[in-house]
Amino acid sequence: MYTELANYGYYKVTTDSPEKYHELIQELADKLPHGSGINGNWHIKAYQYKNRIYLQAFNIYEAMNENGFYCHRYVIHPKFIYNPELTKVCEYCKGMKYRTYEEIAEKTGESWEHVKSRLLDDLRFIEYDDRTFVCNLCSGTGRTKIQKFELLPDRIVYGRELNCCGYGLEDYLGDTFACLD
Ligand SMILES: [Zn+2]
Q1: In this structure, is the dihedral angle defined by the CA atoms of residues 119, 124, 127 and 132, taken in order, positive or negative?
Q2: Are residues 38 and 107 in the same domain?
Q3: Do the domain assignments include residue 28?
Q4: Residues 79 and 92 in one domain
């Protein structure tokens, strides 16, 4: 049983998931692209797994060959995790807001003094004290921004890509769905 959540004339948004997810599904649908080869209806499934909500969106991608004609159609199914909070603890500094020169020295085999002199030549690295510097990923806030609908690293294109459709369809679509805003 499909529920039609929206009908824009040239495409529809449908789901077969429970009503409690309909608002969230519509919110994702509003952010999903349409056009440029993504020409069909969006069908979106939402479900809960281990206290997190996942959404998988289905559509058809019409690839063009090098002469600019549509050549093949692919089922695409980008999968997202819903992040109710828009930031997460910084992966680099684990929320500490600073990092240590030793941490990098351990990985590169340099002395920490050497790492320090090397990094401080780069303006992005701001020193806190003798042995630490402001985390360059979160700029010292301890948290980094995340997408409300974060694309998961699963495959997006169903089946094998054909050469005539151009290489890198998976990468191209990955970029398309990675930043929905
Ligand atoms: Zn950080």
Answers
A1: negative
A2: no
A3: yes
A4: no
CA pair distance 46, 13, nearest whole angstrom = 13
- Residue-by-residue pLDDT tens, the chain, 181 positions: 799 999 999 999 999 999 999 999 999 999 999 988 999 999 999 999 999 999 999 999 999 888 888 889 999 999 999 999 999 999 999 999 999 999 999 999 999 999 999 888 887 888 888 899 999 999 999 999 999 999 999 999 988 888 888 778 899 999 999 989 7
Total number of domains in the chain: 2
Q: How far apart are the CA of 108 and the centre of ligand 1, in A?
A: 20
Task: Answer yes or no: is 139 within a domain.
Answer: no
Instruction: Find the domain containing 124 and state its range.
Output: 88-134
125 Cα: distance to centroid of ligand 1 (angstroms):
12
Q: Would the pTM of this model clear 0.90, i.e. be above it?
A: no
Distance 90 CA to ligand 1 centre (A): 4
Which residues are close to ligand 1, an ion, with C-beta < 5 A? 90, 92-93, 135, 137-138
Ligand 1 midpoint to CA 93 (Å): 4
Beta strands at 143-145 and 87-89: parallel, antiparallel or unpaired:
antiparallel
Say how many Å lie between the CA of residue 181 and the centre of ligand 1.
Answer: 23
Query: 156 lies in a domain?
Result: yes
Q: Six-digit token pair at 49?
A: 């797994």
